[in-house]
Amino acid sequence: VQLVESGGASVQAGGSLRLTCRISGYTFSALNMGWFCQSPGKEREGVAHIDVDLDALGYGDVRYAEFVKGRFTISRDNAKNTLYLQMNSLKTEDTAVYYCATAIWGQGTQVTVS
Question: Which residues, 6+ apart, have CB-to-CB distance to 74 below 8 Å?
Fold first, then answer.
């Protein structure tokens, strides 16, 4: 399994970004997925998670960390083997390296909010 994140950038507070994670080497629709972030000097922490679509409803259960609720949206496109994180109303404290993960980690993408 290989995970490749993209979409990180430097933005001003209040701005938006969309992170993308492309998965290869496994059946993406069978994977529970998550986004994590790590700021300098801090532990890596969960941002959002999305589960497999067990009921064939087109989406799985989602969960968010309190500090991103109402601002970030996690989604998946199983046809494209891609995981997304839409980040709105960005704050300076959102500055971090963002990783997508399942059983393994991607390489991360830097988000800087000033």
Answer: 33, 35, 47, 48, 49, 50, 62, 64, 83, 84, 85, 86
